Amino acid sequence: MADDDVWKPRLSDRGGPLYLAIADAMAADIGAGRLVPGERLPTQRALAEALGIDLTTVTRAYAEARHRGLLSGVVGRGTFISDRAAADMAPLAQGDIDMSMNVPPQPLALLRTHLAQGLERFVRAPDLGRRLGYRAAGGGATERTAGAAWLRRRYTAAGLAANTSPHADRVLVAPGAQAALHALLSLLAQRADVVLAETLSYPGFTAIAARLGLRVVAVDCDGEGLVPDAVAAACRSSGARLLYCTPTHHNPTTATMSEGRRQALAAMIQAQGLTVVEDDAYGALAATPGTPLAALAPAQVWHVATLSKCLTPALRTAYVAAPDAIQAERFEGVLRTQTQMPSPLAAGLAADWILDGTAATLAEAIRAEAATRQRLAAELLPPGSYQAQPDSLHLWLNLPPDWTPHAFVQRAARTGLTLVAGDAFLSSDTPVPAAVRLALGAAPDAASLKGALIRVAGLLAGPRGGATGVI
């Protein structure tokens, strides 16, 4: 805040004594990031004049805020937001942020415009009756063509020729990646079979595996994700024939395989005769995406690409590219028994957006906002304290030695933040990582995210050990 600016609390929607309303507004602005630690507030007289109220009311408000630990004063310099304010303030409903759900930051202005236009065009279509009716379990011809076009963009963005991407007869539409993964594991494995996966994996996958009675064997990873030699060793020791992995913006660590790693892993997959489920949830968001494993070992890799992470969860649409048309038919049979069909409205709107370029516009806006939010995290969190990619939706925060993940999550909850402890991502019985995942997309705007990250930074810098207060 510049010296000639005057902070003016929003008081129109606050009842009760005016001095408490001012203190509450100050706390809310700290929680939302509109006021940050170290920021100087206007003098009491200046604020009173700006609000047109009595000086004593502002004096009482500042005293109340100081009592709450929101303010600190330096003789001769003024009144400032305290360093501990963001971390120590009581959680406020308007300042609560759920950083546990890995959703894309929604470009609401664009979405409103394109949703209105898309739905208007959908309902005015001359074949509306057909579009609203039942269809094949793997989607109609137009929807599968759109899915193939979406995957083609993924291939060409990685520098591959367009004609190397899967044809529509290999691409099916599922009502979201979770439904696609459930159908795939049902098709590719039987109860008690072994499935290999990264040591830390998407909880939705491990939940499906448990429900189907599959045994997940964790494979060692490094900064690039799966280690090919470790995958080969796990194949030999467990007899596994199926692998699940996320090569790009891995959830939760954000590890992303280099081209060399992808080539080495693909060669190992072919040598071992593995079948692979490639969860490419975030591939469309990467500014420089790596080659899909499905392009390197097409006869053995099932490619799953959801729109929930790169466009909006509201579409509940994912595309699955099978190794060949015959296996696509088998997969469609499983989809038919489990989900009947994708939503005609959601799948139809997604197809329209892909074919008219709207999907590409939205994905680019989300990619740019994700990059902006990662830059904000880099400014506010301690250097070297986390792993992330420049345009990933989340980051993996390493905790100091005397913090346990659950204690940190519980302390964060007291400041209005919902985080996910590292053990939620364990794929098997391995040591719990001293880390938490922070999803950056759920905050409604950059100011709210800034406030949340300031609270996280305050927790990292403050007293540690996770005392619960239980005696």
From TrEMBL:
Keyword DNA-binding among record annotations: yes
Top-level taxon: Bacteria
SMART domains (alphabetical): HTH_GNTR
One example GO MF annotation: DNA binding
UniProt keywords, alphabetically: DNA-binding, Pyridoxal phosphate, Transcription, Transcription regulation
Sequence ranges assigned to domain HTH gntR-type in this UniProt record: 16-84
Gene3D superfamilies hit by this protein: Type I PLP-dependent aspartate aminotransferase-like (Major domain) (3.40.640.10), Winged helix-like DNA-binding domain superfamily/Winged helix DNA-binding domain (1.10.10.10)
Family: In the C-terminal section; belongs to the class-I pyridoxal-phosphate-dependent aminotransferase family.
Protein name: GntR family transcriptional regulator
